[in-house]
Amino acid sequence: GNSNEKYFSAALDTVVGFRKELMAEPADEAGFFNYSGEEVRKLFPCSSYYEAAMRFFYERFGGYDYSGRSSENAKRCLDEMLSASEGHPSSEIYAQCLINAGRSDDAALGVYEGLLKKYPSEKACVWPEAERIQIYYDRACAAKPQKEADFLKVKEMCEKAVAKYGKSSYRERIENIRKSMEEKSMSFNVGKDGEPSGFFYPGDEVPCSIGFKNIEEVRITLYKIADYAEPLFDFTDKGQSEAYLRTKAKAVRTVTLSGLKAGYGVTGTKECSLKVEEPGNYVLAARPFAAGNAGFGKAALQALDGGRQTECLQFRVSAIATAFRQRG
Questions:
Q1: Which pLDDT value is given to residue 323?
Q2: For residue 269, what are the contacts with CB-CB under 8 A and spacing of at least 6?
């Protein structure tokens, strides 16, 4: 590790020492340029041998986790790359995006929007465009409460960018953001602190919540699991869980929740509660619906979106656990 750091530091010092001479060499003749992938060479052609060398060194420094001079050398590469890119739009875009990659603050957003305004016709601007859209999307997701207008704004940005830029991994990122806003998703939590299963006591009222996105209707079915000795099942596989419910459980009641859609891209939440009543009956309470009574033992709640299984949770109501609680 330390020997590699010393090697790259010395090599970087040598290349920087020949900055003037290397700046005069066209990048097409640069052996360092060969490390780049086809997409990078196409969107961000180097303006000089020196800039290509700086990219090479930055890639190498970025791959090591040094505690010594590596961070200083990486920053030095970026600064030199930015200086060498003066007057070359694609090179400036490349350097600025490297410097600001992963940042989501207002300063980074200002850099991306500045590049888009300065070079509106550059195909290389697909990178800052992707970063800018990602920031707006992340902020829309993090907002409390979420607003449909924010997601519609991101959708419009995505559509314009996809229409403007050619095929690349950056445009694919933009397309994936749009797809993620339009996909259907649902989560179903039963129990305290979102615990999906466990022991409940008669008389307990356990909070439940359904999270949903781009879904208008969900069917909830309460199942009684016939054999108490049957181990709790991991409902991660759709086929196995359906077979399990078909052979090991009995449907007690099904209810339908309608009108759930919260708006384009918005993740909504509907609160309810699981009421465990004396003498050991458990139902999904009437706030906002009741799912039925399965008695002592084990049960499962299955949530489906349009007939497609989305989430399945299971729990126990234990008379023995209740007796211990009463005695303790």
A1: 36
A2: 209, 210, 211, 212
